[in-house]
Amino acid sequence: MADFHLGAHTIKSHGAKVVRLHMHDWVTLLVLVVLDVILNVIEPFHRFVGEDMMTDLKYPLKGNTVPFWAVPVIAVLIPVAVFLVYYIIRRDVYDFHHAILGLLYAVLVTGVITDAIKDGVGRPRPDFFWRCFPDGQAVFDPITKDVACTGIKSVIKEGHKSFPSGHTSWSFAGLGFLAWYIAGKVRAFNRRGHVAKLCIVFLPLLAAALVAVSRVDDYWHHWQDVFAGGLLGLTMASFCYLQFFPPPYHTDGWGPHAYFQMLSESQQPQNGAASHSLSSRPTELRTVTIHPQNDAEDLSATSTRDTSPILSGATRS
């Protein structure tokens, strides 16, 4: 049987192979990028806005507490930095590749859905009045009674994109994925009652929630917009994470499906006998000593399950 050790699956040794196996996924990501660009270029639906509907649309026109350029940093670059730190420690290209791929899918699918809904709904932002009438002088069509905006076209266009919140959906997609990832790595749901681990898991979600709150405070969104955006982002983060990783409460919740599949295939007997199931596969860490605990699984020094040793201290705490 093949013998595996930590650091045996690096970007240099297995990176090209892993990328080739998922080339169609990367190509699909490029298609999603193009779709999102198109959705941001086209004109959104201009919903009818009568004079009596302006009551909730006269909030001040303010800048963004969280600027647009900061959203990719929060939703993508920060999680990638965490993935990179874990890769440097463990040297597992399967985990690194699938974490990045899953994150990008979560963010881009969320972005496409968000912008498609924005364009289709065309809900005015809370500051729509001042976008439409920057001089404060309201003008309405004498026949339809619809607004006859006198402001800058690009500003008015952005004013019809309130629902759902893009800042919020992107933040919850990226940081929600990161929360799932951290939960798996620290084994937050291993039934040992270490609730302090949840504080680490909740930190990304708290950051996403603060971004959502800023959108209401800046009068760029109604509360329903950020609620829907958060729900959308977190849902897509969950779907995309579980596509690549087992649930965090699973015994193998610390690593990607592909990693265990690779181990299972590599441990097949050379004589072509039937392959071992994942639950009984020998793994790479036969030299790792794991002390049994009263309340833990029956693990011994000869355990055949990879226990992600860099975090074993956390699981024994």
UniProtKB/TrEMBL annotation:
It is a multi-pass membrane protein. GO terms for biological process: phospholipid dephosphorylation; phospholipid metabolic process. Residues 270-282, 300-317 have a biased composition (Polar residues). One of its GO terms (molecular function) is phosphatidate phosphatase activity. The keyword Membrane applies. It is found in: Membrane. The chain crosses the membrane at residues 26-46, 66-89, 96-117, 167-183, 195-214, 226-244. It holds the Pfam family PAP2. The keyword Glycosyltransferase does not apply. Keywords: Hydrolase, Membrane, Transmembrane, Transmembrane helix. Residues 101-241 form the Phosphatidic acid phosphatase type 2/haloperoxidase domain. Gene3D superfamilies: Phosphatidic acid phosphatase type 2/haloperoxidase. Belongs to the PA-phosphatase related phosphoesterase family. This is Phosphatidic acid phosphatase type 2/haloperoxidase domain-containing protein.
